Amino acid sequence: MYVVEHNDRIVVIDCGVTFPGPDQPGVDLILPDMTWLAENRERIDGLILTHGHEDHIGAVPWFLRAVGPVPIYGTRFTLALVRGKLDEHRLLGEAEMIEIAAGEPRRRIGPFESEFLRVTHSIPDCVAVALHSPAGTLVHTGDFMFDHLPIGGPDKASDIPGLARLGAEGVLVLLADSTNADVPASGKRYEASVGPAMSALFATSPGRVIVTTFSSHIDRMQQVVDAAYRDGRVVGVVGRSMVRNVAIARNLGYLKDPDGVIISDKEIAGVPDDELVLLTTGSQGEPLSALRRMANGAHPKVDIKPGDTVVYSSRRIPGNELAIDETINRLVAAGATVVTPDDRPEVHASGHGVRDDLMWMLQLIRPRFFAPIHGEVRHQKAHAVLAKGLGIGERTVILENGDVLEVSADGVVTGERVESGITYVDSYGVNDLGEGVLRDRRHMSEDGLVLVMVQIDTHDGTLSGTPEVVTRGFAGAEDEAMISAIRETVVASLRESAEEHIHEVDVLTKQLHDAVGALINRKTRKRPVILPVVVEV
Fold this sequence. Notes:
This protein is an alpha/beta fold. The chain has helices spanning 35-39, 54-57, 60-67, 76-88, 160-169, 194-204, 218-230, 240-252, 290-295, 321-333, 355-365, 377-389, 435-447, 480-499, 505-524; strands at 2-6, 9-13, 29-32, 44-48, 72-74, 97-99, 107-109, 112-119, 126-133, 136-140, 173-177, 209-212, 234-238, 262-263, 276-280, 309-312, 337-339, 369-373, 404-408, 411-415, 422-425, 449-456, 463-472, 529-536. The protein folds into 3 domains: 2-186 and 350-425, Ribonuclease Z/Hydroxyacylglutathione hydrolase-like (Metallo-beta-lactamase, Chain A, 4-Layer Sandwich), CATH 3.60.15; 191-344, Rossmann fold (3-Layer(aba) Sandwich); 436-536, Ubiquitin-like (UB roll), CATH 3.10.20.580. It has 15 helices and 24 strands. The strands form 6 sheets. Strands 7-8-9-10-11-18 form a 6-stranded mixed beta sheet. Strands 14-13-15-12-16-17 form a 6-stranded parallel beta sheet, sandwiched between helices. Helix 14 packs antiparallel against helix 15. It starts with a strand and ends with a strand. The mean pLDDT is 90.
């Protein structure tokens, strides 16, 4: 998410999510911190979306909840995906959605004359955004690559003449995608090269072919459909987001279905294995995805069996390696042959530009100032090195979350930081999970939980009945001697408290916590989460 401000008015570019790592248990999504935007909601004139990937549109529902009804600008396919997302969140009527198109005349959005230029990426209808103002022009590339023969024809290629025109007119500051800044030109693959690789795999696979890729990668799906058609196979679509996006793409004409080659999941069982291709979610090992459930033997319609070929037509997102490897191991154990880009690089092509693409964008735009964005810090620094080689190094700034870049004809300075962070979302839609909650979850995942429940007499604080001890994930959970030792410690602590006439529940709770914690640490060197529950009777 990028916030552009001029004359006290604000336009926001993109509003995405990221996904949790192993040190964030129980978290489903991570959003930008929108506190500052909520505090300045009256100054926001619009949200511009460069394309429909989750890391660019995934947080739109939370954005609307935070700032209220703000006009949302996006291309046809992007807005179709956003509508589905807002419908799920019951927010469909909360914002005006305004369709834009690459190459259309400039339109006024807040303080800016806004212009949209077509760029090629791994999803249809992507645009770069140019915001023109009296102070100068800002260009945000969105995610891009230069592919001269994209799927769908040359009119889907990046608008090189338009980008060059912007550069000739003068660009004050460029914000450009850095994701593949460390990939040399030799590592570049074009999307059109994936189709022949799929055809070869389909022709040589004895049984079903299961292809997993991102559910938004319509061009990749088109190549799978075309390759299946050439090989006399039909294509079944499995996985909720895959089914939804395929339906949207077909309805809008972005995905062509020759002779009805795409079938529903209800028809899969009636097709011979050697005539079937399945498109499925789960390329990143997501726990509830269709492929992960197939691998675990838990999918209601598809069981993995010997003779199946599973093709991973996607890259590994950093942080997902363990989940992906676990899924692959289960697929292999079930008898499938698994093909990944590590085995056959031609089954995947990145939608992000490599070094040569990034240098070409810098030369086309020729910005006075440059901020490499998107990707990790190492990618942004690699992009800055490319800019230095082109003579822009002294005018390049690497930004962190919350940084304010003040740009004018006189120069560029880093202004006062905006307080920012991240917001966690769990499966119940809670979006105020703090670091303390995650710390407790990590704590429990490492050393477990010990729950101690006792009843005490209201009058004298003495123990009533036998303490109950419940453990989860604690090393001593099956150790009766440890459980007995915990009970004895609880009895002794309550006896001492009663003798000292301590009856207050909060004091007793703390004393039990400390006594049980000291015992467990002394015996096991573990520090589980200890929850004493004291009930007065």
